[in-house]
Design a protein that fits this description.
With 366 residues, the chain is α/β, with parallel strands linked by helices. It has 3 domains: 36 residues, no CATH class; 202 residues, Rossmann fold, CATH 3.40.50; 103 residues, Alpha-D-Glucose-1,6-Bisphosphate, Chain A, domain 3 (3-Layer(aba) Sandwich), CATH 3.40.120. It has 11 helices and 13 strands. Strands 1, 2, 3, 4, 5, 6, 7, 8, 9, 10, 11, 12 and 13 form a 13-stranded mixed beta sheet that branches. The protein starts with 5 loop residues before the first helix and ends with a helix. The mean pLDDT is 90.
Length: 366
């Protein structure tokens, strides 16, 4: 059951038929207008006519240049854990995609989750559950959200989630995550494609994390590395990969990942990169009887849950498995008795080098 729409497949570059070229032809003028408008907007900042807002503490941004999943959320978790391992404190500042809240809202004070998915979106709530001790704040105006975070929590640093295109806020370290198999997505700027801005925007990046999960060796054999080094000559490049962290069973009990080996499962998700999730399940030895894909940030209905349960019954599976982002969107819905959640973390080659860059940012502010 693939619920991703035709237009989304065209934008992502996955549909290459005749009508996809008709769509691109129709949206090409709007893409040009967007690029021109964006260029003027950025020139205002480069010329000093507009000023970026500075917060009272350093800001470390994690972002990407395309829509869809590149491993940005695991990168946010990794940087937050780096900061706390250095004996410092962090607050995550997010826009709260999909949430109804507009003004600054505290999703978590570091001790408990205070807001719902409906109010703040799925990613901030999932981060709040996976980062105990780290407050999470959402705000569409992240200047106001950052001010609230500084005044209430007095952190050593703000980790700005999905902040590469938030030009209004000064960042001390810009980290961009790209997928090695498609670092520039479809190659077309929105709305014609899934690029958020022209690829030359990578010149602003201080660090580029190249997720090689789907294309092992792309960075080490030089192809992707050479291209990125040309586009972003000042950025430091790191290879990284999504790695299964642990499996949570019913009632949130931790289960050894080895339990999956040989088990018949149905997997479902509504994330930016569903293929990586199902590939990870297979790599752990699970027999994936069916992969059910929903759109990114999908709001699950009772009908969706009945469908998932019916498909698992049809295959007589041992478990139904989903992601951390998806499980928070199931709260308040009918329970799935044999539901398991696979937690993912980011493994970074040369992590100590990245940690030194983070430490330098924190030290300069102290």
């Amino acid at each position: 059951m693939a619920k991703i729409g035709y237009i989304e497949q065209v934008i992502l570059g996955e549909e290459k038929g005749f009508f996809s070229w008709v769509f691109r032809g129709l949206t090409w003028p709007f893409s040009i207008l967007y690029r021109v408008g964006l260029g003027i907007y950025l020139w205002l900042y480069d010329s000093g006519l507009r000023k970026k807002h500075r917060l009272a503490v350093p800001v470390i941004s994690i972002g990407n240049i395309t829509f869809g999943g590149t491993g940005k959320t695991p990168a946010v978790e990794k940087i937050c854990r780096m900061i706390t391992d250095l004996g410092k404190s962090a607050v995550v500042l997010s826009r709260g995609h999909g949430g109804k809240a507009s003004g600054p809202v505290v999703v978590s004070d570091g001790r408990q989750v205070l807001s719902s998915v409906d109010e703040c979106g799925d990613e901030p709530v999932a981060l709040a559950q996976s980062l105990p001790g780290v407050p999470i704040v959402v705000a569409k105006d992240r200047r106001a959200g950052g001010k609230l975070a500084c005044e209430r929590f007095h952190p050593s640093a703000i980790v700005l989630d999905d902040g590469f295109q938030y030009w209004q806020l000064h960042r001390d370290l810009d980290i961009v995550v790209v997928d090695a198999s498609r670092p520039f997505g479809s190659g077309y700027v929105m709305p014609m494609g899934d690029l958020r801005e022209p690829i030359r925007g990578l010149r602003r990046a201080h660090v580029v994390l190249v997720n090689v999960t789907a294309a092992e060796g792309c960075l080490t054999d030089g192809r992707v590395g050479r291209v990125l080094s040309t586009i972003a000559p000042k950025a430091e490049l790191f290879a990284c990969r999504r790695k299964p962290r642990r499996l949570l069973g019913p009632h949130s009990s931790a289960i050894d990942l080895e339990w999956l080996r040989g088990r018949r499962v149905v997997g479902f998700c509504g994330i930016g990169s569903p293929t990586s999730f199902f590939s990870t399940l297979a790599s752990l030895g699970a027999v994936v009887c069916e992969s059910i894909v929903f759109p990114d940030h999908h709001v699950y209905s009772e009908a969706d849950i009945k469908y998932i349960v019916s498909r698992s019954a049809a295959h007589a599976v041992d478990a139904i498995i989903t992601t951390c982002k998806d499980v928070v969107r199931l709260e308040g819905k009918s329970a799935i008795s044999n539901l398991y959640v696979l937690e993912i973390e980011l493994e970074i080659d040369g992590e100590d080098r990245l940690e030194r860059l983070v430490k330098d940012v924190l030290d300069r502010a102290s």
